[in-house]
Q: What sequence folds into this?
C-alpha cells in the first residue's frame, strides 16, 4: 500500500523531529489540523503494519514519535554499540590528548591547541563515554569544561591520570640550534 501525501508528510515531520513532539508542532509543520493527527497517525501505523515496516508511530503522553518496533530493538542496540566502540579517528585522539593533559578544558581551548574546529570531535568523545562535562567555568559565556572519565582510564590501561606518559620535549628548536653550532654558526640570542 502506497502512503498518501498526508501520511508521507507526517512521516517526514516525525522523522525530522526525532524526539517525541507535541501535536501542535507536528500539525503546524505538516500543515494538518491538530484534531486529524490521531487518525492520521493510526492510518500511518496501519500502512506500516500492512507493509511489514520496522517503523511505528508512538503516542507518548500526548506527544508523537516515529520509532522502531520493539522486535528490532536488539539489532538497533547492536548497531549503536558498534558505532560507540568504533576506533577513534586521528582528530579524536588529538582532542582526547589535549583534554587528558590539560583538564578541565573547554571546546574552545581544544580548538585553539589543535587549530581547527573541534566541537564535533569533543561531542563524539562525550558520546563514547571517554570525556564528560564537568560543569561550567566562571568565564564570560560560562563555557562547559570537559574532563576524562573512568572509561578513558580503562580503555588506555591507566589507573589514574598520573600514569599518563610524559609529553615529549620540544626538541625541534634544540636540534636546529645543535646543527647550526656544528656548522660553525652562532646561536642567536
A:
Amino acid at each position: 500500500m502506497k502512503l498518501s501525501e498526508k501520511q508521507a508528510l507526517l512521516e517526514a515531520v516525525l522523522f525530522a523531529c526525532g524526539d517525541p513532539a507535541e501535536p501542535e508542532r507536528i500539525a503546524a509543520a505538516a500543515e494538518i489540523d491538530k484534531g486529524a493527527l490521531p487518525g492520521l497517525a493510526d492510518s500511518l501505523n496501519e500502512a506500516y503494519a500492512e507493509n511489514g515496516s520496522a517503523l511505528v508511530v508512538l503516542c507518548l503522553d500526548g506527544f508523537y514519535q516515529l520509532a522502531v518496533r520493539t522486535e528490532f530493538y536488539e539489532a538497533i542496540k547492536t548497531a549503536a554499540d558498534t558505532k560507540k566502540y568504533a576506533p577513534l579517528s586521528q582528530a579524536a585522539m588529538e582532542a582526547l590528548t589535549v583534554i587528558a593533559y590539560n583538564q578541565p578544558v573547554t571546546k574552545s581551548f581544544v580548538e585553539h591547541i589543535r587549530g581547527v574546529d573541534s566541537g564535533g570531535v569533543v561531542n563524539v568523545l562525550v558520546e563514547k563515554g571517554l570525556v564528560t562535562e564537568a560543569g561550567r567555568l566562571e568565564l564570560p559565556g560560562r563555557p562547559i569544561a570537559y574532563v576524562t572519565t573512568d572509561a578513558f582510564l580503562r580503555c588506555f590501561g591507566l589507573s589514574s591520570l598520573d600514569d599518563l606518559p610524559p609529553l615529549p620535549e620540544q626538541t625541534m628548536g634544540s636540534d636546529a640550534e645543535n646543527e647550526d653550532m656544528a656548522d660553525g654558526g652562532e646561536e642567536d640570542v
